[in-house]
Design brief:
With about 500 residues, this protein is mainly alpha-helical. The chain is about 75% helix and about 0% strand. It is built from 20 helices and no strands. Helix 6 packs antiparallel against helix 7. The longest helix has about 35 residues. The N terminus and C terminus are likely disordered.
Length: about 500
Amino acid sequence: MADPKHDPVPIATSAPPPEQARAGRRAWLGLLVVLGPVLLVSMDGSILFLTMPTITHTLAPTADQALWILDGYGFAVGSLLIAFGNLGDRYGRLKLLMIGVTVFGLGSAGAAFSPSPEWLIGCRVLMGLGGATLLPSGLAVLGELFPNPRQRAQAIGIFAATFAAGFAIGPVLGGLLLSRFAWGSVFLINLPVVVVFLAAAPFVLREVRATRPGGVDVPSILLSAGGLLAVVYAIKDFAAYGPSWPVLASGAAGVLVLIWFVLRQRRLAYPLVDVTLFRGKVFTVAIITGVLSLVAWSAAAYLTGIYLQTVLGLPVLTAALLALPGAAVLITMCVITPRIAERIGKRRALALCYFTIAAGLALLLPTTTTGGIGWYIASTAIAGVGYGISFALVADTAVAAVPAERAGAAGAIAETSNEIGNALGIALLGSVAALAFRVLGPELAPTLNETLDLATTGTVVTAAKSAFLTGLHIAMATGAVLCAGMGVLTLRWIPKAQFQHSASRTAS
């Protein structure tokens, strides 16, 4: 009798191994269903940039409330992304997707009919709560739908391109909707996609669970979210109203809480964020790139939206159409960047990302209160090159820079960096512009729109517009200097060999 341990392996089999099995029509339909919520999550991070002047006139938020309307969503997504990724591993990705999309839809409906700034901020946070479930769970579901490695890579590439496209087209779509409908339409547009997903997902998607050691550390979630919110509140309040003891106390407390968070992660066996990954230079540069590029993009998009509509007096439809060239460049770069990186290397590609963003921001400096449309278009097109490179390379570079067994943690941090950067851009550079306006403006009100509503003479209007433009210039110059500095640091600090080592490790 033959020993079963030494029996020959059958030469022919009736089916390919599961890991090589090609996905059918149902899997691609499932991808299409998942892409809808993914597009909404990224799009809602930017859709208000051209809408804010109208919302400001309707709801009359204070300066800090206006900033919270914009980035409360991003902070909710960014601070909860990793936590919900862990929850999905434990309790089921499809279940979490269904709950998240439902919450996102409820938040969108509430936001569309908001009677006050406070209500809108709350609904935006609720939307962020739902959105935080979609990115990690969507990726995990795709991994189950596409067991074939080549098909899975194609699906994930389409997923990433859709996410980047959402950021790019958000302001354009918001402007187009606002040109024909009330401002609430920018949120109501989400509901048909939500309904289609909830109806189709149970039939085309599969439940996905993974065995992940350890539980979700709730104190870590509270510390990270609380620390970020306290620091951002202090920055915004300082910019809008000047220094005060509550503001200083909030900022100091937020910093201490974030330090506490980092120290806690170092002690946990299964941390929420693996901070030890930041010991690697390549990984650190990749994450900084994800954060800083979105800081620049969100701040520039928000401030130029006000500039085009309020300073230059352009209709919202015109402002939306002017944003199209930059959006087209961004999306194109997301597609072609992998080939560019193969030719010039990731190190140079990341440096190019920083230098093109810096150049794009610098092109906004010649704008005036009476003209600057050409400078704006050139700015968005040049900076769009860098933004596209960032979207295409950050996650890949971060994952390649760490050991294979820590790739999941690296990918989660890379995803989070985009959302945090999107929120921080408005919080930091937006606050720089707000501070400049408060110091240099006519002192009637803390925002440009409020000042123009109260202005009684043309002199005051001119002074207010000039003060806002100065604030925009200071914010963009700050962003340009930071990006240019990081570009130089990337070339000088990171040896070329480290990127080559990371790339070869990924290929193997």
